[in-house]
């Protein structure tokens, strides 16, 4: 459930970003479709070619079944991917960590 909440947050950002920014060039050169021609919001679903949606489904499937193929044995939301080597991104104090995780759940 935590993962789905995070995906929903990214989807919300993805819904707002095209209002202010669009890539240059072609979304589908063979169809002559430019990124600027794709409308914002739900109307974009009808403009993107089926091959484009197939690529997204394949990417999401790869992400879901290959990258996160491990069983989660620890705390909920901890997929064992670490902090990507960034310093200052982990909370060492157990009480502060528990408080931070509870704050994320309450968000």
UniProtKB/TrEMBL annotation:
Gene3D superfamilies: Chlorophyll a/b binding protein domain
Pfam families given in the database record: Chloroa_b-bind (PF00504)
Subcellular location: Plastid, Chloroplast
SUPFAM superfamilies: Chlorophyll a-b binding protein
Keywords, comma-separated and alphabetical: Chloroplast, Plastid
Keyword Coiled coil (UniProt): no
Segments for region (Disordered): 86-107
One Gene Ontology cellular component: chloroplast
The protein's name in its UniProt record: Chlorophyll a-b binding protein, chloroplastic
């Amino acid at each position: 459930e935590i993962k789905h909440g995070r995906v929903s947050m990214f989807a919300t950002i993805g819904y707002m970003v095209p209002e202010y920014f669009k890539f240059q060039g072609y979304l589908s050169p063979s169809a002559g479709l430019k990124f600027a021609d794709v409308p914002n919001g739900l109307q974009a679903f009808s403009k993107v070619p089926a091959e484009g949606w197939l690529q997204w489904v394949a990417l999401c499937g790869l992400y879901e079944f290959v990258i996160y193929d491990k069983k989660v044995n620890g705390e909920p939301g901890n997929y064992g991917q670490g902090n990507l080597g960034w310093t200052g991104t982990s909370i060492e104090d157990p009480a502060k960590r528990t408080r931070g995780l509870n704050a994320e759940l309450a968000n």
